Amino acid sequence: RRRLAPLNEDNGRFLLLAALIAAYLSAGATVFSALESPSEAAAQLRWNRTLHNFSRIFNISLPELRAFLRSYEAAMAAGIRVDALRPRWDFPGAFYFVGTVVSTIGFGMTTPATVAGKLFLIVYGLFGCAGTILFFNLFLERIICLLAFIMRACYERQLRRSGLLPPNVRRGPAVSGVGRLVGWKPSVYHVMLILGIFAITLSCCASAMYTAVEGWNYIDSLYYCFVTFSTIGFGDLVSNQKATYQHQGLYRFGNFMFMLLGVCSIYSLFNVISIVIKQILNWVLKKFECRCCPKCHKSSTRLSRRNAITPGARLRRHNVTVDADGQYDSDTEGRRLSGEMISMKELTASNKVSLAILQKQLSETANGYPRNVCINTRQNGFSAGVGALAIMNNRLAETSDSR
Q1: Which spans are transmembrane here (predicted)?
Q2: Separation between Cα atoms, residue 100 and residue 121, nearest integer Å
Q3: Given this model, what pLDDT does residue 29 score?
Q4: HSE of 252 in the Cβ direction (CA atoms, 13 Å)?
Q5: 95 to each of 70, 110, 130, 306, 338, how far by Cα in Å?
Q6: CA separation, residue 304 to residues 2, 38, 149 (Å)
Q7: Tens digits of per-residue pLDDT, 96-154?
Q8: Fewer CB atoms inside 10 A, N or C side of the chain?
Q9: Is the sign of the CA dihedral 357, 359, 361, 367 positive or negative?
């Protein structure tokens, strides 16, 4: 009789990630509390001393002084400053605002004050944020295709230099016959390294511009770049807020381009890192698999020695590496075969279908990545995954449990 596992792989990975995120949040809160709490307490003490001294020297009661300061805080929230600042709601200022809305940066230095503006923002942000996330996913897909093309060209050149690839073989159908290029995909770790270098270089260049134009120190500029590009958007530092700048039009264009490229690159880098985190979670789950139930582990080991054959063992004997979007990926329907016993008849029928799918996928990979979906998605449109994670799984190697 088949034993029903209380927790499948997906749920186990989800709960493990939730526990790790909770621990990560707790650790971060502890560190930031230890770092920032003394400074906050000291600042509050200095402010109270200054407030009482000002009230005593100028003979102003504390309630009147606090009422005046509340009015000043309301003016600051409305965008009014002592020094001259650029208008918040002219067309360039409003364009800057909607850009921070749809990209989910949300600095908070500009907010709608009217009821009509707040209601319009709800509808505008709903479609704007959805469209911008789609744009980020399409950018991710194209940057991965570009990196795959460049890395494949470098890989072919390396094979030619080592004599493993004939020099007269060109890209195209002929390449699919070369064994070392069949099914090749770029490594997720190499892509993560390239995207990380690009994001760091972009942040350093943008920080140099903000340091020169805004007058910030370089560390504050790097901090602003990360907070902005990662769409955290605290709003303690905001660029392009002075009334006038030298070469103002050029600076606005550079600021827009740096923010656009920075958000896209950091979004892509975050998704690649998420694949690596998923691999770590899979490794942890595999290490803890069935350790809590020794009887189940022994029974499954004893059953595996009988005539029935598991697909995982057969794949390991033949050293077959399954593609990330293939039948045996942990996120597809094929994962249910990894722990079940099947008969030789079912195994033969399954191998025929799997072999056809694998040959089709390897051929498509060698000749460039097509835009049509694979065969197994005809049964379930979401079996290959959706969103950025599916893009990464379909276009990068080393994303399955076997790697």
Answers
A1: 94-115, 121-151, 188-209, 221-238, 250-270
A2: 12
A3: 92
A4: 15
A5: 30, 11, 18, 69, 52
A6: 14, 61, 43
A7: 999 999 999 999 888 898 899 999 999 999 999 999 999 999 999 899 889 988 988 88
A8: N
A9: negative
**Bridge partner list, 222:** none
Q: Round to whole Å and give the CA distance between 111 and 299.
A: 63
Confidence at 322, pLDDT banded by 50, 70, 90: very low
What SS3 state is found at 72? helix
The domain ranges of the chain are 7-82
* Token pair listed for 393: 């799984």
Average pLDDT of the chain is 76
Nearest residue to 258 (alpha-carbon basis) of 204, 202, 217: 202
Instruction: Retrieve residue 98's tokens.
Output: 């909607």
Residue 248 has pLDDT above 70, yes or no: yes
Tokens of 177: 């016959």
Q: Which residues contact 271 (CB under 8 A, 6 or more apart)?
A: 140, 388, 389, 391, 392
Q: Is 70 helix (H, G, I), strand (E, B) or coil?
A: helix
Both tokens of 186, joined, read: 């770029």
* pLDDT tens column, 155-208: 888 888 887 766 665 554 444 444 555 667 788 888 999 999 999 999 999 999
CA–CA separation, 370 vs 141, rounded Å? 12
Instruction: Decide: 206 and 221 in contact? Cβ < 8 Å.
Output: yes
Residue whose pair of structure tokens reads 């890989």 in the numeric block? 155
Q: Are 258 and 202 in contact (CB under 8 A)?
A: yes
What is the amino acid identity at position 240? N
